[in-house]
Amino acid sequence: MITLKNFKIIALLEGISYLLLLGIGSPLKHFTGNDILVRTLGMPHGLLFVTYVIMAFLLKSEQKWTNKEFAIILVCSILPFGTFYADKKYLQVK
């Protein structure tokens, strides 16, 4: 069963993995040529991203998100710090 609590955990992990990938992995790869963090974090982040999007679709009607709220929640998955904003603004227990 998909719950808001599980979605919040995935959102947190997706946000952290994205920040690590963008903030540490990519600069390390581009400035030193060492791509170990990109290779290590890339797949888990991709899986978390896909899980986030799928869970958002599954929770949309249950949480009674408007189309605007749903669109914002989805866009938050591609913005740095976006999932943290979505958690604070839209993923609170109603």
From TrEMBL:
GO terms for cellular component: plasma membrane. Keywords: Cell membrane, Membrane, Transmembrane, Transmembrane helix. InterPro entries: DUF3817_TM. The chain crosses the membrane at residues 7-24, 36-58, 70-86. It comes from the Bacteria. Residues 4-90 form the DUF3817 domain. It holds the Pfam family DUF3817. It is found in: Cell membrane. It is a multi-pass membrane protein. NCBIfam families: integ_memb_HG (TIGR03954). This is DUF3817 domain-containing protein. It comes from Wenyingzhuangia fucanilytica.
